[in-house]
């Protein structure tokens, strides 16, 4: 049985994971929304104007009215600045499953930050929401994302070959990872 609690405040040693607020727009815009490298393997393109970021955040804030929306902005405690995002897609109540996606500002890559955030989200979804299966997929040309999944205890299930076409018009392979509630007992 799932208990839908929505996007609750989570905290780790270095991070605060919380709901977006309108004032995050200017930080998100300067920190990652305009960076072509950050969205290289993602479906969206760099924002061209701050109003684009404001508009998207407004929509996410409205989404918080639904308790099956899980979308955190990641704040680094040290500098009290927002540096990235982690969110849940494909929330499936019937099967107690979902998938997870994330990104952070390029200047903070390689410090274990996303692994720290993902572990907290996995823990929350299993312990508080009653999730049974969490899935994540990454383009095989983006191995850093695969490392985050491995370091967070997720297991590779297989590769979907040329399963999609990217925004540049090229087919690409997706690596599928998952973690089950029952895996936690094995770690
Ligand atoms: C993927 C991403 C979230 C990783 O965040 P991060 O905070 O740097 O992740 P971590 O520091 O926890 O771990 C990154 C790991 O990838 C490794 N890595 C980085 N570049 C790599 C590469 N080209 N090949 C193999 N491993 C790589 C790092 O060495 C590190 O592993 P290690 O701890 O074993 O050394 C970040 O790079 C990002 O936001 N990218 C753009 C958005 C994106 O691609 N999102 C995922 C879509 S599926």
What is the count of helical runs? Answer: 5
CATH topology of one domain: the name is Aminopeptidase
If classified by CATH, what would the architecture of one domain be?
A: 3-Layer(aba) Sandwich
Kindly report the name of the CATH homologous superfamily of one domain.
Gcn5-related N-acetyltransferase (GNAT)
CATH class of one domain reads: Alpha Beta
Question: How far apart are the first and last residues' alpha carbons, in Å?
Answer: 23 Å
Mean pLDDT: 97
Shape: globular
Which H/E pattern describes the elements?
EEHHEEEHEHEEH
> How many β-strand stretches?
8
Give a written overview of the molecule.
By secondary structure, the chain is an alpha+beta fold. It has a domain at 10-132: Gcn5-related N-acetyltransferase (GNAT) (Aminopeptidase, 3-Layer(aba) Sandwich). It is built from 5 helices and 8 strands. The radius of gyration is 16 Å and the shape is globular. The model has no long low-confidence stretch (mean pLDDT 97). Bound molecules: coenzyme A (COA). The site of coenzyme A has 20 residues, from strand 5, helix 3 and helix 4.
Task: Outline the secondary-structure elements.
Blueprint: E1 10-11, E2 15-18, H1 25-33, H2 50-63, E3 71-76, E4 81-92, E5 97-104, H3 113-129, E6 133-139, H4 143-151, E7 155-165, E8 171-180, H5 181-184
Parallel strand pairs: 5-6
Antiparallel strand pairs: 1-2, 2-3, 3-4, 4-5, 6-8, 7-8
Helix pairs in contact: 1-2
The structure holds coenzyme A.
